[in-house]
């Protein structure tokens, strides 16, 4: 999970890590948002692996609209889930609830890129509350999209720089 306003670096790292982890048998769950989430889901699909999209509204309301084709592809190689009933109107509080589900489904949470103000940090907190591993990719110190990642690493999250780092943490 991570930034909607992702950098080229964040998107590239997300693609590399999620594709490698998916090929090793890990099912990737994310939130079907633009940016990091979109790239994670697409990397799984491109690797012919499964992915789970957790959405914040009802299954009849795939947002953002530009991810509707991606959602259709996910239904062929994974699933889309939501705890919200059909016709749920947009409500900001639905998305932290979605983040709670993502962390609950996961043995660990991987954050390739996030700002300090990102909703991704709520997913990180849910992960910590569930006593699950939090895996975070460092970024450039002058890049706002990495500020949340750096803060999480300072708080004790696992710093990861490769799929091998992730696998080592997850399989130890």
Structure commentary:
By secondary structure, the chain is α/β, with parallel strands linked by helices. Helix 1 (8-23) runs parallel beside helix 2 (36-46) and helix 4 (94-105) packs across helix 5 (120-129). A 3-stranded parallel sheet has the order 1-2-3. The chain has a 3-stranded parallel sheet with strand order 4-5-6, sandwiched between helices. It is globular, with a radius of gyration of 15 Å. The mean pLDDT is 96. 42% of the residues lie in helices and 12% in strands. The protein has 7 helices and 6 strands.
Spell out the blueprint of helices and strands:
Layout: H1 8-23, E1 28-30, H2 36-46, E2 51-54, H3 68-74, E3 78-81, H4 94-105, E4 108-111, H5 120-129, E5 133-136, H6 147-154, E6 158-159, H7 163-170
Parallel strand pairs: 1-2, 2-3, 4-5, 5-6
Helix pairs in contact: 1-2, 4-5
Rg: 15 Å
Overall geometry? globular
Annotation field: number of helices: 7
Main sheet specs: 3 strands, parallel
Portion in strands: 5-15%
Strand order of the largest sheet: 1-2-3
Q: Could you say which structural class the secondary elements and strand pairing correspond to?
A: alpha/beta
**Helicity range of the residues?**
40-55%
Contiguous low-pLDDT stretches (5 residues minimum) are none
């Amino acid at each position: 999970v991570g930034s909607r306003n992702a950098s080229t670096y964040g998107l590239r790292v997300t693609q590399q890590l999620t594709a490698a982890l998916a090929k090793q048998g890990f099912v990737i769950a994310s939130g079907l948002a633009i940016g990091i989430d979109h790239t994670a889901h697409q990397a799984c699909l491109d690797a012919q692996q499964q992915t789970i999209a957790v959405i914040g509204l009802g299954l009849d309301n795939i947002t953002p609209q530009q991810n509707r084709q991606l959602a259709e592809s996910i239904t062929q190689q994974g699933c889309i889930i939501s705890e919200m009933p059909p016709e749920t109107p947009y409500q900001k509080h639905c998305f932290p609830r979605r983040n709670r589900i993502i962390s609950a489904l996961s043995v660990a949470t991987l954050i390739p890129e996030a700002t300090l103000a990102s909703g991704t940090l709520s997913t990180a907190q849910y992960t910590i509350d569930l006593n699950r591993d939090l895996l975070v990719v460092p970024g450039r110190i002058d890049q706002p999209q990495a500020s949340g990642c750096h803060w999480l690493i300072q708080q004790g999250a696992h710093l990861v720089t490769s799929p091998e780092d992730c696998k080592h943490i997850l399989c130890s």
